[in-house]
Amino acid sequence: MTAAVLVGLLILFAMFAGFWTDWLWYDSVGYTSVYRTELLTRSLMFVIFGVLMTLAVGFNIWLAHRLRPPLSAMSMEQQNLDRYRMSIAPYKRWILIGVSLLVGLIAGGSASGEWRTWLQWVNGTSFGVTDPQFHMDVKFYAFDYPFYRFLLGFGFALVVLSILAAALTHYLYGGLRVTTPGSRITQAATSHLSVLLGLFVALKSVAYWLDRYGLALKTGDFRDAGWTGLRYVDANAYLPAKTILTIIAAICALLFFAALWRRGWQLPVIGLGLMVLSAVLIGGVYPALVQQFQVRPNEQVKEEPYIDKHMDATKDAYDIADAQITDYSGVSDASPETLREAVPATASIRLLDPDVVSPAFQQIQQVRGYYQFPTTLDVDRYPTEDGEQDTVVGLREMDVNAVPESNWINEHFRYTHGFGMVAASGTEVDPNGEPLFTEEDLPPQGEITEAEDYEPRIYFGEYTTQYSIVGGPQQEIDYAGEEGEVEYSYEGDAGVELDNYFKRAAYALTMGEPQILYSGAIGEGSQILYNRTPKERVEAVAPWLTIDGDPYPAVVDGSIQWIVDAYTTTSGYPYSSRTTLGEATETSLTESQGEVVAQENQVNYIRNSVKATVDAYTGEVVLYEWDEDDPVLQTWMKAFPGTVEDRSQISDALLDHLRYPQDLFKVQRDLLQRYHVNNAAQFYSGSERWQVPADPTHEGTTSVPPYYLSMRMPDQEEPVFSLTTTFVPLNRQNLASYMAVEADARSPDYGTMRILTLPTATTVWGPEQVQARFNSDTQVADQVNIWQRGDSTVDYGNLLTVPLEGGLLYVEPVYIRGAGQNYPLMQKVLVAYGEEIAFEDTLDDALNVVFGLEESDGGTEPPPEGEEPPPEGEGEQTLDEAVQEAQDAYQDAQDAYAEGDWEAYGDAQERLEEALDQLGQLEEARREEDPADGTGG
């Protein structure tokens, strides 16, 4: 008995430990109100709907038992059932209670998962926008309609389970018979089941009525677009059909209720058959006929009014209605001198690619093997002596998987935090091609963190996924100094204090680590830190937000703050196209950066309504209201009062680092591929459809990521921090348009979208074509071939596009990773403008060459002083021919690959291999002829 009691208490404590530790965590971050509201709402819905289901099913079982016939018919069927009746007779009450409670628990658990739907319905805020068909406020579709659908679904479940339970009880006690001669059902059972069937059909009538409004949210594929809303056949066939079916279902329900006074089910069954027949004819066949004989012969004219509604709603829902679209020639008639002088005033061209240079940060600034940098760094802005500049930044976080000795103490007590931000100029590199660091080393030193109160320790970061126990008797490794490792003890209050054995036992259970209960490394002042990534912390304190996939760090008032963009979304905006967020935000970098949300999460309204910060040392989470006009945010602020700070509370120091979020921009540009047009006929034809080009610097077909860049569009007076992207026509590679959004939160024009559209009659190079021209240029190909002939590899950086004096300037840094070298060095810069390209050591040189102000140096090192260059002759001509053959073979292979001609692709690959072999032989021969020529010509 004692053992049983102890086991029972242990099970109860284990169940309680999860709730308790969650409460302790929310208390440690100051958001217990969020946990309390969620828990109370879940509990309330569990109880209400669980009790309703329990009472409904239990009552119908009890009523069916009470209405049983006093004598059972004499038949083999009833004799067999007598055995069951006798066996359950002593336990009827307990069976009734048990079955009812089981059904109620399942129903309550399912209902509790709809707590967000309940809170949105209770606190729903008006959008001030009505749908064009029913003239209902969008609030009805976003907040009310989902709750009504939930209630309807629960009502159907309640009635169906009640029918099944009542029918089974009637059958068990003889009120409903299957094989017995004579009447198969008693009058009492008929009346009981008639009422339940009538309720079911009445609910079906309500469902038909709600289906009318659901047409405004109906999704489908139309002209290769993710269509949402009514089309011609919906408004002129389905809508009246739903109204008629509503009336028929209501009449059919009355016929079932009438069976209480009329014996038999003849009329109800006839009514039910009529309803089913009507659903097939009116709800299925008639709309199909309308589509076939009215819509298809003249589809464009019929659908244009509905296309207009769909386009307007989509643009409003995704906040792209005010995009400024202007024509842009793509060709400049400015003089070379004017073009060259215009570059510095047009853009601060970033040569440091945050996706390529992470290994350089890792190798040069890692200091110890247990530190790590993100695979893709971030771009921010910081002041310098010459003014504000684009800066590539990354945090030196702890890599617990790389600690020298892997054990529980080291992983959770000693190696607990990272140390310091590392930053480098985005526009310059040092003479060797390495990043030009503006913040570096341990302890940190540089321009960014020169404040005396700077706190460099990083206890909360993107890679800090394990729990740590800090602040107690066990000292932590702080950082590696000149005299060895410096120790430290955490002085913040971000964790949960392990100040008694009950807490230690609870965390031993939840963390699955019994040593927490008895370890001597835990003592006075010990705190446990967990849920330590910025995304985890914001998601926990604001479970109603969707989190951007790329939180980024910034030094704000001496502390490192993670800035997290968060979105409010809904899938209930009528007529607005639905988007799968995971697909829309996927680019060539998302594997290293992560995605905004799960792949299947579909929305048709999104706003960047909240800017959140997470302190890297204290773990403090602050939510700031950003979009003050967002009704979805207002709804959630009513549900969780006091959790979101006013926008006015954002400090100037923090505002300096806020920017337009990448994932929102990627969703918007995904929509703009089709919804940039204002004409329904153009939308229908798809003749002006764009697409985001594939990233030419990465293998595969994933789209090019948007780039942060300080630049100015033609109508702007000076460069501003922007987020940019390019578009190409559908299934083509020439440039269709260029888009930039003002990303500087300090700008009064923050969020303004500007789109430059290129003439359709003119062919302007797109990113993939520019990359192909770079690759096929003789000078570039020769140099790259020389680099790659050894053990070196070539990495192409981000291909940046900048509108310049009517034309388009393309800039791409080229990085070399030498043999035995673990990080790339920037060695060359590729530039293209119009029909000209340049390949030089520096950006300035490349710009001078591409604009014709200087001649190219040939892309190779000059011969040593005092020596003559290699003589021109027959061998050099042969080398050029071999290079040309390699280029031709490469281009033929690309063309064959695009056309799916694999035989031609194989032939071209063989020619390419032969040409490269010939190149190697020719260069080897030249080296033997002239050993002083180290470049091989």
Defining key terms:
36 strands; alpha+beta; seven-stranded mixed beta sheet; six-stranded mixed beta sheet; 937 residues
Tell me what you see in this structure.
- This protein has 937 residues and is of the alpha+beta class.
- It has 6 domains: 95 residues, no CATH class; 153 residues, no CATH class; 132 residues, no CATH class; 173 residues, no CATH class; 107 residues, no CATH class; 126 residues, no CATH class.
- The chain has 27 helices and 36 strands.
- Strands 3, 4, 27, 28, 29, 30 and 31 form a 7-stranded mixed beta sheet that branches.
- A hairpin with an 8-residue loop joins β28 and β29.
- α2 runs antiparallel to α4, α7 runs antiparallel to α8 and α8 runs antiparallel to α9.
- The C terminus is likely disordered.
Write the layout of secondary structure elements.
Elements: H1 2-29, H2 32-66, H3 76-88, H4 92-112, H5 115-123, H6 138-172, H7 187-214, E1 219-222, E2 225-228, H8 232-258, H9 266-295, H10 299-317, E3 324-327, H11 336-346, E4 347-348, H12 358-365, E5 371-372, E6 378-384, E7 387-395, E8 397-398, H13 408-414, E9 418-419, E10 421-429, E11 435-440, E12 445-446, E13 457-458, E14 468-470, E15 476-481, E16 484-488, E17 496-497, H14 501-510, H15 515-518, E18 527-529, H16 534-541, E19 546-547, E20 552-556, E21 559-570, E22 579-580, H17 581-584, H18 590-593, E23 602-603, E24 605-615, E25 621-625, H19 631-639, E26 644-645, H20 652-655, H21 662-675, H22 680-685, E27 690-691, E28 707-711, E29 720-729, E30 737-742, E31 753-757, H23 767-776, H24 778-789, E32 793-796, E33 800-804, E34 807-817, E35 825-833, E36 836-840, H25 843-850, H26 874-899, H27 902-929
